[in-house]
Every structure is written in structure tokens, then in C-alpha cells.
């Protein structure tokens, strides 16, 4: 493989079928230039599709647990643990509804089902920072293991969505400011061919 500029490395690794983690690309997450290149070449679509599928699957799994095994397990809890379970189940449901809202909005944007203004208006209503009592309440250890695992998964998926949201915003702002060197080159080539 020929030597590629660093910002193309992420796309080439993804294209070659190798699994690339965020930490391999950049210790603090994706660098703006990497995100733009991935965004333009469709690699970002794969990451979003995976996140969408995992998010929706977690929502279904959580709803089934809370309505089934979770309801049964919560009956055996002490009064304080039962109150914590109810409060944390509500927080987790809210968290996952916010994640679902973001995922559906991003999908609508990607498929051009809504205008930019409609998306911005709806996105302003989405909160990707719901609290949890996971480390604060001494009764946490009494809660059912499966429930605690679902809470942890919901917090992780919320963090992944929050990270993707920041990266998308950063890439789009970078692009709107005309700082994207790839688009600049593409536009120059298009302009050259239009004059001939």
C-alpha cells in the first residue's frame, strides 16, 4: 500500500476490512480531518448503521426486561432498593428515548426526510446527558445483575451517541467554514471541467 497522509489512514484501514478502534486513530477520538474523510467516503455511514442497530436493539431488550423479568425481580427487593430500581428504570427509559430520538433524527437527516431547520429544531429538544445513581446509592448492589448491566449499556450507548454527535457537528462546521481540503480539491476539479 502506498504511503497515505495520516488523515486518509482511517478510511484505508476500514476499507481493507480491518477493525479500527477510535483509540488507534487518535487518543482523544477522531481528529476533525479524519472524521471529514470518513464522513465523505461513507465509512461514517457504517459506524452510524452499527450504532443505530445496537441502540434500537438495546431499547427493545430493555423494554422486554422491564416489562418481564425485571418486574418479577423488583418485587423481591427491599423498600429502598425497590425505590431505587423504579427511579433508575425511569432514568434509563428517558436516556434510551433520547438516544432513539437522536438516532432517528440523524437517519432522517441522512435520508433527507427533513429539512436542516426541522432537524435543528427537533435536535434542540434532545438531551444526551441523563443522570444515573450507579455509583452514588448504597442500595445499587441489591439491584438485579441484568438490570445493572442494562443501565451500564444504556450509559455507554448514550456516550457513543454523544461522541458521534460532537464529531458530526465538528465535521459539518469544519466543512461549512470551507476548511475541508478534500472538498476544496473536488470543487477545483469540478470547476476546471465545467470551463472546458
Automatic annotation (TrEMBL):
Superkingdom, natural source: Bacteria
InterPro entries per record: AraC-like_sf, DUF1465
Protein known as: Regulator of CtrA degradation
Organism: Bartonella apihabitans
Amino acid at each position: 500500500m502506498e504511503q497515505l497522509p495520516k488523515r486518509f489512514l482511517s478510511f484505508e484501514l476500514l476499507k481493507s476490512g480491518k477493525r479500527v478502534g477510535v483509540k488507534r486513530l487518535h487518543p482523544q477520538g477522531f481528529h476533525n480531518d479524519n472524521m471529514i474523510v470518513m464522513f465523505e467516503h461513507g465509512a461514517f455511514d457504517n459506524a452510524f448503521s452499527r450504532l443505530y442497530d445496537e441502540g434500537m436493539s438495546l431499547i427493545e431488550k430493555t423494554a422486554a426486561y422491564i416489562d418481564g423479568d425485571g418486574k418479577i425481580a423488583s418485587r423481591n427487593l427491599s423498600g429502598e432498593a425497590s425505590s431505587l430500581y423504579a427511579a433508575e428504570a425511569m432514568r434509563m427509559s428517558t436516556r434510551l428515548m433520547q438516544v432513539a430520538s437522536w438516532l432517528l433524527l440523524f437517519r432522517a437527516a441522512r435520508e433527507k426526510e427533513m429539512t436542516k431547520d426541522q432537524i435543528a429544531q427537533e435536535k434542540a429538544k434532545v438531551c444526551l446527558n441523563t443522570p444515573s445513581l450507579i455509583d452514588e446509592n448504597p442500595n445499587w448492589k441489591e439491584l438485579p445483575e441484568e438490570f445493572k448491566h442494562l443501565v451500564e449499556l444504556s450509559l455507554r450507548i448514550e456516550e457513543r451517541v454523544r461522541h458521534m454527535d460532537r464529531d458530526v457537528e465538528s465535521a459539518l462546521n469544519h466543512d461549512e467554514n470551507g476548511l475541508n481540503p478534500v472538498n476544496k480539491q473536488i470543487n477545483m476539479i469540478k470547476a476546471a471541467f465545467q470551463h472546458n
